[in-house]
């Protein structure tokens, strides 16, 4: 009992010795950056940073991004630490539009972002990837499938989605796929595609909205003059395997669609009255036609039996004249017309463009197959040059037999005389140029020979397997200058 009383007495002495200062030395400490985020609604939040070592002007940045995104329900931006930002949206529509519209830049600096998951710590979000639309160029028809597109996307980065218009007959020479790409790794330039029984094909990648990237290391966020490899590699050994051709051309709308109705200058002035028609004050007045004349003019414009007529505009009213007749023709290197996808694509593009003439090269199939395709697509006239084994093959389709006839052909061309009722005859020649460079001269000589065979107006279309400048070639080694000069000389002749 004495022992317990002694221990109790010691505890009382210890509590009595505690002072206010000692109590204040304990507790919790908060950092400056650990702000209260309890009011943030993490359903509609993005975490983002900019790929730069420069200091970001926060005020200018948030105003710029808000003006780019234009969120209908508003936007709140919070700087958690230098170059780490939280973007609070207030509706799924606004945040979805920003995600779909990526990539984004501020002051030409790439913005990397990621959507915040529910309950996730904003400061733990890893920001090292970005979504891009990538164009796949140079693919032959046998590789144009959803599976191949997905496989290529996973080679570039991680597949997100494919363009729904890829296989809907839209007339373009590439496919599109959306890919998540690591921004700290080199961009992919191309991919080799192989298939048994088919020639090797290279898929060339072009990135839409691609910001500044290094031509030496291929990493986004810095130009080549700031590349680390400059310090490790002698200048004469330094290679630049990347090029600006990896940037896809902007996808712009056609703003010249109204050019048919636009004029190059204002309407002419109305005729003024002669001195005898002036009033007492000597002022000139615009001479106006009698009411009856105006009414007759209006009636003649409405009368389907009346054509032409000058109603105050030189050459008549262009709004009341039919547009000039145009014969629509298309040419396509189909690389195998026996492919079901090729037939479906051709069917859809013909349905859209409604051409009267179609020239195909590299059909790579038998004559009866080509003729079946032409008849099935609604063409009366069909002419074929059979393939040589698994290569070559030409075809020309035309809508009506009376619209022309073939006047000559070879394994590399079909020469066609076009006849339109009430119009002058003219020639259309579909050409498939020699693919072997050592035999390219044969194509040039063919063009010269065809020119001498007739003096009629002449149109050439097809795949001539030649370029007229280095700018026409995408990637790889420079095009031989001798081939460019030889082709230009043939065109001049």
From TrEMBL:
Residues 271-281 have a biased composition (Polar residues). Residues 249-324 are annotated as: Disordered. Residues 330-481 form the Endonuclease/exonuclease/phosphatase domain. Residues 43-122 form the DUF4283 domain. Residues 282-304 have a biased composition (Basic and acidic residues). GO terms for molecular function: catalytic activity. Residues 184-228 form the Zinc knuckle CX2CX4HX4C domain. This is Uncharacterized protein. It comes from Cannabis sativa (Hemp).
């Amino acid at each position: 009992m004495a022992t317990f009383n002694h221990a109790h007495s010691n505890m009382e002495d210890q509590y009595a010795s505690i002072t206010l200062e000692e109590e204040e030395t304990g507790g919790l400490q908060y950092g400056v950056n650990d702000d209260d985020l309890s009011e943030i609604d993490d359903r509609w939040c993005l975490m983002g940073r900019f790929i730069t070592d420069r200091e970001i002007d926060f005020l200018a940045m948030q105003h710029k991004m808000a003006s780019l995104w234009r969120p209908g329900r508003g936007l709140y931006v919070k700087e958690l630490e230098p170059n780490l930002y939280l973007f609070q949206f207030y509706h799924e529509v606004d945040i979805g539009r920003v995600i779909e519209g990526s990539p984004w830049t501020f002051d030409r600096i790439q913005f990397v972002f990621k959507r915040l998951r529910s309950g996730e710590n904003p400061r733990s979000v890893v920001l090292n990837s970005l979504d891009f639309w990538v164009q796949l160029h140079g693919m032959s028809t046998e590789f144009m499938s959803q599976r191949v597109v997905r496989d290529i996307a996973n080679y570039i980065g991680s597949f997100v989605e494919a363009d729904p218009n890829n296989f809907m007959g839209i007339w373009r020479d590439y496919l599109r796929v959306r890919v998540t790409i690591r921004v700290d790794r080199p961009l992919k330039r191309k991919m080799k595609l192989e298939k048994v029984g088919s020639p090797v094909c290279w898929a060339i990648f072009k990135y839409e909205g691609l910001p500044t990237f290094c031509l030496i290391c291929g990493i986004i966020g810095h130009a080549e003059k700031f590349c680390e490899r400059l310090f490790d590699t002698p200048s004469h050994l330094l290679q630049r395997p990347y090029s600006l051709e990896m940037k896809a051309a902007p996808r712009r709308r056609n703003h010249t669609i109204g050019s048919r109705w636009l004029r190059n200058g204002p309407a002419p002035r109305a005729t003024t009255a002669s001195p005898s028609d002036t009033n007492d004050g000597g002022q000139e007045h615009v001479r106006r036609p009698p009411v009856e004349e105006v009414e007759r003019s209006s009636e003649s414009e409405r009368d389907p039996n009346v054509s032409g007529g000058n109603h105050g505009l030189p050459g008549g009213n262009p709004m009341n004249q039919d547009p000039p007749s145009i014969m629509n023709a298309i040419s396509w290197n189909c690389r195998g017309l026996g492919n079901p996808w090729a037939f479906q694509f051709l069917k859809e593009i013909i349905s859209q463009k409604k051409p009267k003439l179609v020239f195909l090269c590299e059909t790579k199939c038998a004559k009866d197959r080509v003729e079946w395709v032409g008849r099935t697509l609604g063409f009366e006239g069909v002419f074929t040059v059979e393939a040589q084994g698994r290569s070559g093959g030409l075809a020309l389709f035309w809508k009506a037999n009376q619209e022309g006839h073939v006047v000559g052909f070879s394994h590399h061309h079909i020469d066609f005389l076009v006849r339109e009722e009430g119009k002058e005859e003219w020639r259309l020649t579909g050409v498939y140029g020699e693919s072997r460079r050592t035999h390219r001269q044969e194509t040039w000589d063919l063009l010269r020979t065809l020119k001498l065979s007739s003096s009629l107006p002449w149109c050439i279309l097809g795949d001539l397997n030649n370029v007229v400048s280095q700018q026409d070639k995408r990637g790889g080694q420079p095009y031989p200058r001798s081939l460019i000069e030889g082709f230009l000389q043939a065109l001049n002749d």
